[in-house]
Amino acid sequence: MHAYLLISQNSNKETPIASLAKKLRAKVIEFPIQKIDDVRSLNNLIRLSFSQPTLIVCQNVHLAGEEALNAFLKNLEEPQENIYFALTSTSTAKVLPTVVSRCQIIRVKNTASLSQNGESEKFIKMTTAKKLAFLDKVKKRDEALEFVENLLNYLHQKLHTEEDFQKNAQSLEIIGKTLGALKANGNVALQLTNMAISLSLIPFTE
């Protein structure tokens, strides 16, 4: 694998990047790819021959324009010798699926993720009315995507055995379908409401 996507709510990702660079025995170069011109400059750089492993770090790729990311894709599809990429974002849901699919996902644990787990745990245990009231505050698509993805991640962390997954297969399926529908531009309020009602009909089993 020559491309990595580090997911973290923490703005300081220096430690995990340093750990990755150490593992790859690579030197680190920071390079922004917010606009198409940034990608062109990057392409000029990596046309050079690198004699030692080099990790190119592109922070907050979810803020990059779609045109820039589409142009950047070629670098992920056609890896150059001694070149690795470390992209960072707060959520895979905010990054183009074509970029995500070409990267190894590294989820960075931090205090923010602990807070999100606490929020997800409370939501799972809420009554239907409280679930609906909670979700009524989620208006924007990116907020909905982030919440549903965190909810799915929480359940995956909570379930340790095959039996756990079988008992909660319907809950996982409901949340997974909601995430897919939101990514496909389904109505935010409708999808979240349907998820809350469906989850309340299928109690979570620890």
Provide tags for this entry.
206 residues, alpha/beta, Rossmann fold, five-stranded parallel sheet, 12% strand, elongated
Concise summary:
The chain is 55% helix and 12% strand. The chain has ten helices and five strands, in the order E-H-E-H-E-H-E-H-E-H-H-H-H-H-H.
The coarse silhouette is: elongated
Low-confidence sequence ranges: 111-115
Report the radius of gyration as a whole number of Å.
19 Å
Strand count, sense and barrel status of the largest sheet are:
5 strands, parallel
Tally of DSSP helical segments: 10
CATH superfamily placement of the largest domain: P-loop containing nucleotide triphosphate hydrolases
Helix content: 55-70%
Q: Give, in spatial order, the strands making up the sheet with the most strands.
A: 2-3-4-1-5
The chain-level structural class is: alpha/beta
Order of helices and strands: EHEHEHEHEHHHHHH
Integer average pLDDT: 85
CATH names the topology of the largest domain as Rossmann fold
Extended strand count: 5
- Share of residues in strands: 5-15%
CATH class of the largest domain: Alpha Beta
How many domain units? 2
CATH architectural label of the largest domain: 3-Layer(aba) Sandwich
Distance between the termini: 35 Å
